[in-house]
Amino acid sequence: PIKEISSEQQKPFIKVVEQILSITKDDNHLDNPDKQAKVKKLEKEIDQLVYKLYELTSEEIKIVEEFSKEK
Questions:
Q1: pLDDT one-digit tens code per residue, 29-39
Q2: What is the DSSP track for 13-42?
Q3: pLDDT at 1
């Protein structure tokens, strides 16, 4: 299920997404390993925010991350 969250709770997600968009708007982001690494790091931050939002346990996080590796 998708959680309903307040505007205040959305702010950390928005901040990270805006950072990703700022990096990926550059034409060279796909050819720049530093930018790709930064985007990956930011994506992991979003993962952590989602885990916290849904109050996942470490065991549940492990399941989600293992499933993500398979894709």
A1: 999 999 999 99
A2: HHHHHHHHHHHHTSTTGGG-HHHHHHHHHH
A3: 85
